[in-house]
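Team,

Forwarding the record for the chain on the shared tracking sheet. I've put the sequence and predicted structure together so nobody has to dig through attachments.
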Amino acid sequence: MSPTPSAAAPETPPEATAVLALLLGALAFSLMAVGVKQVIGRIPVAEIVLVRALLNLAMSGWMLRAAGVSPWGRRRGWLVLRGIAGSLALYAVYAALARLPLATATLLQYLYPAFTALLAWWWLGEPVGRRVALALALGWLGVALVLQPGAGASREGVLLALAGALLTAVAYVSVRGLGRSEHPLVIVFWFPLMAVPLSLPFVLLDPVLPTATELAWLLGVGLFTQLGQLGLTHGLTRLPAGRATALGYAQVGFAALWGWSLFGEGLAPQTLLGGGLILAAAALCHR
């Protein structure tokens, strides 16, 4: 005898699952930044990048093999560009985390949508409207507020964060171009594939043996990165891009919480106002 409809367990709506995945992805990315912040005082940036790259390379290689996809791709020049830009973006973002409060560094990273729109117009011929121009104006006004005296942001740290956002945009535009010819797993694979040779010489020149606690945090950086990417991918494939991206801004809230609770970091009023303008600029680019 078949069960009555009322006896069946209610299914979780796909939209609710996507929202949860995006929030968990934002949480994972914020914890990745916490891991970097925990070790960057003693462990060089290159070593953090190398450990993350080795972990992601192993996981991406396993996924390619399971899917039966060749890792080498077709447009290798673009794949190399994507990998190098992404790797350099990591260097800049991680170095910024050493000099800025966690929430401030995370906020400045959200300038990448405006940079991506400009680069996509230049390289791929995608149209740029008034909305992007307004987003750029709001974003730079936000940066100016973050740089105000008393905001607690070093100029060097802000410049590094801006470089990280710009290089992230280069990587994203490369991904857009590659999406027409390459399997997504191949694009993901070439990121750590380029990061390993770029970081290994610097690590060999100045190796630092991590303690057991530092090693755990380094492994966490790689794990939380992978979990964040999985959550983001799951959400983006099941929700409209604008709503999915807006949910990703929860990472800023998580970063502010960890910065306050773990590192005793506060945010000045001008930083909060500047951060609001930067997030508004990112939202305009994703509508």
